[in-house]
């Protein structure tokens, strides 16, 4: 938490209970140790909010699980690839740029989705 000394008294809005902090550290360490052996394995990940993501574990650190997620041509909300054609259902038959296509290298349909370890409910191998 960042604080700046402004000379004014600060009113604390929230402060975690020390027992909760110890528990969260244990959860974080457990998830980290559980995921490390499964780097580069395909998994389903369910979050506390009920979202389910399918992908390959690309990495894990003490705060995040990094999931390599293949994105289909419909570009779901939250995944943005600047090289994806605007109209994937109307591909241009010839070479060169065409309306709705960004210039540059071919697009990659994989993105890395960082998931906060504390938000994970379940991880299962596929």
How would you describe what is shown here?
The protein is an alpha+beta fold. It has one domain (18-125). Helix content is 14%, strand content 28%. It has one helix and five strands, in the order αβββββ. The protein has one helix at 18-35, and strands at residues 42-47, 52-60, 64-70, 110-116, 120-125. Strands 4-3-2-1-5 form a five-stranded antiparallel beta sheet, with no helix packed on it. A hairpin with a 4-residue loop joins β1 (42-47) and β2. The longest helix has 18 residues, at 18-35. The protein is elongated, with a radius of gyration of 21 Å. The two termini are 38 Å apart. The relative contact order is 0.22. The mean pLDDT is 77.
Descriptive labels:
single chain, alpha+beta, 1 helix, elongated
Write the layout of secondary structure elements.
Blueprint: H1 18-35, E1 42-47, E2 52-60, E3 64-70, E4 110-116, E5 120-125
Antiparallel strand pairs: 1-2, 1-5, 2-3, 3-4
Concise structural overview:
By secondary structure, the chain is of the alpha+beta class.
- What is the overall pLDDT average? 77
Which H/E pattern describes the elements?
A: HEEEEE
Bin the helical content.
10-25%
The overall number of domains is: 1
Characterize the main sheet: 5 strands, antiparallel
Strand content is 25-35%
Give the termini separation.
Answer: 38 Å
**Quaternary status:** single chain
Going across the biggest sheet, name each strand in turn: 4-3-2-1-5
Stretches with pLDDT under 50, minimum 5 residues: none
According to DSSP, the number of beta strands is 5
Global geometry: elongated
């Amino acid at each position: 938490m960042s604080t700046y000394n402004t000379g004014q008294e600060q009113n604390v809005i929230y402060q975690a209970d020390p027992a909760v902090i110890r528990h969260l550290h244990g959860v974080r360490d457990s998830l980290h140790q559980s995921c490390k052996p499964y780097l580069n394995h395909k998994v389903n990940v369910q979050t506390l909010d009920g979202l389910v993501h399918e992908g390959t574990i690309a990495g894990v650190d003490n705060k995040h699980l990094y999931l390599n997620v293949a994105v289909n041509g419909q570009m779901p909300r939250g995944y943005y690839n600047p090289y994806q054609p605007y109209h994937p259902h109307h591909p241009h038959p010839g070479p060169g740029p065409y309306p709705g296509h960004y210039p540059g290298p071919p697009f990659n349909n994989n993105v890395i989705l960082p998931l906060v370890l504390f938000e994970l409910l379940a991880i299962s191998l596929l």
